[in-house]
Amino acid sequence: MANPAQRTTQYLQAVSGGSGITVGELVDHILYDAIKAGASDIHIEPWENVLMVRIRLSGVLTELIKLPLDLMEKIAGRFKAMANLVTYQSNLPQEGRAPAGEELGGVELRISTFPTTRGEKIVARVFDPRNRKFNLADLGFDEKTLASFTNLLSRPSGLLLVTGPTGSGKTTVLYAALNYIGQRAGATMSIATVEDPVEFNLSMISQSQANPAQEFTYAIALRSLMRQDPQVIMIGEIRDSETAAIAVQAGLTGHLVLSTTHSGIAAGGFTRLINMDIEPYLLASSVIGVLGTRLVRKNCPHCSLPYLPDATMLKLLPEEAVASADFQKGRGCGECLGTGYVGRTSLTELLVADEVFREAVLQKLPTRELQKVAIQQGMQTMWQNGVNQVLSGHTTLEEIVRVIAVDQL
User: Are 300 and 339 in contact (CB under 8 A)?
Assistant: First the structure.
């Protein structure tokens, strides 16, 4: 496997026995290697005998390098200093931001410290503007989903939800949707957001950051924002019944509202809001669609070769599809750091709320029944989308099963 910690390793080899280590330089090398590899997060965690440094590549944690445990306090102090945190405080969590410098591509780090029984764990989330274009056409949607989704974004009002677990690409979808609306409408559209936190600054869009510690909650921000004459509103996440009620009301009163919820499948977005005490008749009238999304790794184009999935896995696929499938799997090379995968693409299911589906919502059907109605109305599920990716050789069956829970097939 290729070594993603090339510069860090070379630096450690250059110093004698660890005594000549300058922590500032060491941290800079770790950041350089992580950012060059395309990491979204850097984890520095004290284990029993080592200080483990791992990076998240395409959604999967990968070892970067092991360091001596006695460097823990100095490295933690360096990251705290970068983020203007209290360097001597180690028994309470802290959060802050830090620019990584132009030599590292001008990325921004969101640094979080957390006390453990062995010392502090440091996690730095990497926000790299070079890797974020926020173009709907680049997210990997199939043609039908992309056409239906952009049609929903053209509507003047209603609530459009994006669902999925943490790290499934929800924020990226919302930002791409706002960019699409902004580019289409130009200066004729008033677009505003309430987020926690604001991850990237978007042109032509008024973005605000919720701050619950100062009682600037989503609900309070939205109430004030409604007096700002917006046409499109993006809410980072619907977390409580008060925010849900305002979002639904805004969708009913001539605003296009975009937001996210946590649910396993698209139909679960409705159940989630019903559990927040939103009446089904209000949901049936306001929610125009729900997009479920996940991110899967794509096969490395440099080392992918034909393969046959395990027999148990093959049973998950239709027999007629297996015969004509182009199963491909990366073997691991320097280009993919030995993982067999390069980059990620979206798996989606888009539930468009038509009259038949709205009637099912009014009947208060459970999530699984709502999902069945959506499928009967033509929705392609996330699993079906993933199977198509596998059969065409873009990813592996094992990767799809890793991302999509078996009970959602």
Answer: yes
161 — phi, psi (to 5°)?
Answer: -105, 145
Tens digit of each residue's pLDDT (9 = 90 or more) over 353-394: 999 999 999 999 999 999 999 999 999 999 999 999 999 999
Q: What's the order of all strands across the beta sheet hosting 341-352? A: 206-209, 191-195, 232-235, 256-261, 158-163, 287-299, 341-352
Exposed/middle/buried for 9, CB within 10 Å: 0-12, 13-18, 19+? Answer: middle
Among left, alpha and beta (phi > 0; psi -120 to 50; other), residue 63 is beta
| Contact yes or no for 280/243 (Cβ under 8 A) | no
Report residue 125 as tokens.
């989330």
> Residue 195 and residue 207: Cα distance in Å, rounded?
7
Q: Return the H-helix or E-strand segment holding 245.
A: helix 241-252
Residues 53-84 pLDDT 10s: 999 998 899 999 999 999 999 999 999 999 99
CA–CA distance, 113 with 95 (Å, rounded to integer): 6
Q: Which residues in 274-303 are b (16+ Cβ under 10 Å) and which e?
A: bebebebebbbbbbbbbbbbbbbbbbbeeb
Residue appearing with tokens 């979002």: 247
Q: Is the CB of residue 316 less than 8 Å from the CB of residue 396?
A: no
pLDDT over 90 at 4, yes or no = no
Burial 204-228 (b: 16+ CB within 10 A, else e): ebebbebeeeeebbbbbbbeebbee
Non-local CB neighbours of 387 within 8 Å, separated by 6+ positions: 317, 321, 400
What does pTM read for this prediction? 0.88
Other beta carbons within 10 Å of 391: 17
